[in-house]
Every structure is written in structure tokens, then in C-alpha cells.
Amino acid sequence: MSEGRLPLLALRGLITRFHTMDGIVNAVDGMDFDLYEGETVGLVGESGCGKSVTALSILQLLRCPPAEIGGRILFHDKNLLDLGQEGIRKI
To answer: How far, in Å, CA of 68 to CA of 46, rounded?
Structure first.
């Protein structure tokens, strides 16, 4: 955490689940990170570990249902999950 500054983007307990015919798939399970102005963050991992789903969750580009997004996605201290797609477009 950068002392005295709010993060530009903060994920708190991000959870993304997909409801399938075979049950619930937890694609992202409790992700946390902070991104401050001027920083670059890279998500790395094996194929299928949730990198793309994380990005799509932040941008709310997953169809609900079958996707369920939880936790908090804070942009300038505003929870993007409370804004919906129209609110995100205004940003």
C-alpha cells in the first residue's frame, strides 16, 4: 500500500462464479489487489486460472446469469458493482 494515497483500482474479495449444468464453478475466489496511479500490474498464471475472467469481471463484461460476481471492485473508491454497466460506461 502506498502511504497516504487511495488506490486507483482496488479489488477486495473478488469472486466470480459460473452456474453450469454440472454445478457451480469458482473461476475467481477471493482476489485482492491494489493498483496505484503510475503502476502497472500483470496477472500471470496457467491457462484456465482466471486471468481473463478477472479482467472481464472488473469491466462487467460477463453475462449475469450464468456469471455471478461478488466482492468489491473499487475505482476511485466507488464500487463498480454498484454502478452497473451504464454507470461504468460513464466512467
So the answer is: 22
pLDDT, tens only, 64-74: 778 899 999 99
Give mean pLDDT, residues 3-18.
92
Q: For the chain, what are the domain ranges?
A: 9-90
Model's pTM, two decimal places?
Answer: 0.83
Find out whether 47 and 33 touch, Cβ atoms under 8 Å.
Answer: no
Q: Listing from the earlier edge strand, what are the strands of the sheet with 78-79?
A: 23-35, 9-20, 67-75, 78-79
Alpha-carbon dihedral of residues 46, 50, 53, 54, nearest 10 degrees?
A: -110
Q: What is the pLDDT of residue 5?
A: 86
